[in-house]
Amino acid sequence: MSEKNDGANRDATKRSARERLQVERERQKARDKRRRTLIVSAAVVGVLGLAAVVGLIAANTGKDGGADKAGPVVAPSGATGKDALAIRTGKDEAKSTLTVWEDFRCPACKNFEDNYRETIHDLEARGLLKVDYHLVTLIDGNMGGSGSLKGANAAACAQDAGKFPAYHDILFQNQPQEVDDAYGKNAKLLELAAKVDGLDTPAFRSCVEDGTHNSWVAKSHAAFREGKFRGTPTVLLDGKDVLSDQADPLTPQKLKERVEAAAKGASGGGTQKGAGDASPSASSSASSSASPSSSASRGASKAGSKSPSGTPSKGASAGAAEH
Q1: What are phi and psi of 266, to 5 degrees?
Q2: Who is most buried in 60, 171, 231, 240, counting CB within 10 A?
């Protein structure tokens, strides 16, 4: 009987030892698993942190278009307005002033220009309207590339040569698709300059290739952000947004009538009703033709966002949308 008890005790001891060993192994497995999890988590956090830093650098690079390397601010000849950030066309004595914030890569800006160009030029020729153009780089920041910056610099170089209005129109008339950064290539900008009589000179080429006005363009874009405008084009007539009135959208004919009324009011001693009567706003409206990348542009314009385009304004004949 004693031998049986001894055998049972030995068996129990063995089982207990095996159980303890199994428990210890399970504990070790759990510890190893936790350690692996911590190592993997730390690695993931490190990768995500690096990605966030890289993403922030990339985002900031897109927003300033690399202008931090552009050198000193050199305003183009005849630049006007606060900090000399506007290029003016038309006669200084004109009663009405149209202020336009534009990006040469922005499809909505092209829509605006295509629809209003003839009317604006006619009013300028008659001495009724002057236009202050502010050049920005919103699409570069939203979609990458440098076409907004280089196109704006080239336009400023054209201003130095006294050829801004013609070259400005050529750039919009030949605007590539928004996703095509063709204006990021100096060769394309010089090719288009050949379409303007007398513009393609050694001085112009040097200005374009050296990025002479890059920092000036960057400063103009900074002013655009500080103005908290929603997108491009932003168009103000005598300080009032004329594209955001959904109930009474602007048309070329309405622009003509308001400018003419302002001129008559000035000469007659009183301002005619309807001259520049659009509701004030700090943003441009969208129109009947929106940009192809509307979702991408909207967010960036707030910082300038990844997002150019906004919602089209019902019935706006300009086809201008936010970028």
Answers
A1: -70, -40
A2: 231
* Residue-level pLDDT at 248: 83
Give the pLDDT score at 71.
Answer: 78
Q: Which pLDDT score is estimated for 51?
A: 34
Q: List pLDDT tens digits, range 226-239.
A: 999 989 999 999 99
Neighbouring-strand partners of residue 130: 90, 97
3-state secondary structure of 89: strand
Q: What are the distances in angstroms from CA 61 to CA 65, 219, 278, 293, 321?
A: 6, 15, 36, 20, 25
Q: Which two tokens stand for residue 88?
A: 């003016």
Q: Are 283 and 225 contacting, i.e. CB atoms less than 8 angstroms apart? A: no
Residue 274's pLDDT is what?
40
The span from the CA of 244 to the CA of 313, in Å, is 8
Confirm if 249 and 314 have CB atoms less than 8 A apart.
Answer: yes
Instruction: Take residue 180 and report the two structure tokens written for it.
Output: 């095509």
CA 71 to chain centre: 21
3-state secondary structure of 116: helix
pLDDT score at 16: 62
From residue 53, alpha-carbon distances to 59, 138, 193 in Å are 10, 22, 40
Regions in the chain scoring below 70 on pLDDT: 1-70, 267-323
Q: Quick check: 184 and 145 in contact, CB under 8 A? A: yes
User: 3-state DSSP call for residue 261?
Assistant: helix
SS3 62: helix
